[in-house]
Amino acid sequence: MHSQVVIIGAGPAGCSTSLFLSKHKIPHLILEQSIFPRDKICGDALSGKVVEVLKKYDENLIHQMTHDPTHFLGSWGVKFVAPNGKALDIPFKQNTGQEPHAPGFICRRMHFDHFMVQQLDTRYAQLITGAEVISMGKADNINSVTYTNQGVVQTTSFDIIVGCDGDRSIVEKTFVNRSLEPDHYCAGIRAYYKNVTELHPQNFIELHFLDELLPGYLWIFPLGDGTCNVGAGMLSSSVSKNKVNLREQMLKAIAENPNLKKRFANAQLEGKINGWGLPLGSKKRSISGHHYILTGDAASLIDPFTGEGIGNALYSGFFAAQAIQKAIEHKNFSAPFLALHYDNPVYERLWSELKLSHSLQKLSKYNRLFNFVVNRAHKSTTLRNTISSMFEDMDLRAQFRNPVFWWKMMIGK
Ligand SMILES: Cc1cc2nc3c(=O)[nH]c(=O)nc-3n(C[C@H](O)[C@H](O)[C@H](O)COP(=O)(O)OP(=O)(O)OC[C@H]3O[C@@H](n4cnc5c(N)ncnc54)[C@H](O)[C@@H]3O)c2cc1C
């Protein structure tokens, strides 16, 4: 068998690559080891960036999401809780009343990923589920991928392969094989709880920056079915250095933290607490090469401060499809061509955000600084509005790196 383009993985990065390839009318094969619907350990928060990319594909998807609040709960803002326990509610947008839909959503990955797979355009996309890729190789100048399909081993040759297979990607291992860097990798755990109380009426997501989890946080994200996604994440180097057991710390916080224990007094854990890694985009890397492209978690593109990876996975899929269209047109699948047409646009769009988030991640380990900012923002409407506008305005967000911004805050301006 031969398929000019082969995508490995049908998570957000794989689906996005496929959808935009279909827009370019490029036929492709997708190999996915799971059968949908399937779970993925995640906080389930779909940020404004997810909405942005989905709109590029089809505005109608957002209408579908808005009309299904049980699965896609619209979220209008974020609650930051500083280590001193003080909370700050920040809307994602200033004029929320005039918006046709929520800026972000929260949706179980069990549902979101299935929803995305259902959008694939079968005129161009051939999806094989239950197909686990086991190796890739080259013989007589032909690239090929080998996978098991219902116990049968099959091989397909390709011109370009797209690694959308997440953290622990076999495509990344085959072509690059970078070792895990604990300063650029985060450990995360996730649980579902029923009956958590005092949730925000506009479904704000909650980030609790607890002393014992810095740099990192405990989150509570409300879902449309009345449950909450509750989890914790922390930089891997700090987990090892401080010998942190994330699971124990999360359960301890839920049972003892004065802000949390009353809200979890009647809460019940649904299922198990599960863990998975977050490869962070705090370092620029080469994300393509001779006949291959890496996207999403396989390319380590998760935001180092917020832990958001779905939006960047979708964006990288969008740019991968553009690069593949050019590669086919020019019959050029070489490393320099793909670096120019894939790595460059990806980092042009994402790097300034990733770099800034890395600075914020480093600042966030100073608990006193965190307390100070939240205390100041409590007193100043202007500062609260500035932080709110930072969700949409990158130049404004960059003020966090400007000493004048900090000086003004110190003197209360
Ligand atoms: C605890 C935790 C909380 C998070 N919270 C959030 C959040 O709230 N919001 C957010 O935006 N991001 C969050 N993230 C990050 C987000 O989950 C990822 O960035 C996102 O899933 C990346 O999408 P992807 O398509 O690159 O990879 P994945 O979603 O991991 O998809 C990879 C796909 O490839 C398939 N695959 C893997 N290997 C093979 C193989 N050998 N053969 C065939 N198929 C294969 C898998 O089955 C899977 O379907 C969180 C991550 C963690 C761990």
Question: How is this structure best summarized?
Answer:
The protein is an alpha/beta fold. It is built from 13 helices and 19 strands. It is 36% helix and 26% strand.
Written account of the structure:
This protein has helices spanning 12-23, 48-57, 60-66, 109-119, 170-175, 236-241, 246-256, 310-330, 335-363, 367-379, 381-389, 394-397, 403-410, and strands at residues 5-8, 28-32, 45-46, 73-75, 77-81, 87-91, 104-106, 125-129, 131-139, 142-149, 152-158, 160-163, 185-194, 205-208, 216-222, 228-235, 268-279, 288-289, 292-294. The protein is an alpha/beta fold and 413 residues long. The protein contains 13 helices and 19 strands. A hairpin with a 5-residue loop joins strand 15 (216-222) and strand 16. Helix 1 packs parallel to helix 4 (109-119) and helix 10 packs across helix 11 (381-389). The strands form four sheets. It has a seven-stranded mixed β-sheet with strand order 6-5-14-15-16-13-17, with helices on both faces. The chain has three domains: 5-62 and 109-180 and 281-360, FAD/NAD(P)-binding domain (3-Layer(bba) Sandwich); 75-98 and 181-279, D-Amino Acid Oxidase, Chain A, domain 2, CATH 3.30.9.10; 380-410, no CATH class. The longest helix has 29 residues, at 335-363. The mean pLDDT is 93. The structure holds flavin-adenine dinucleotide.
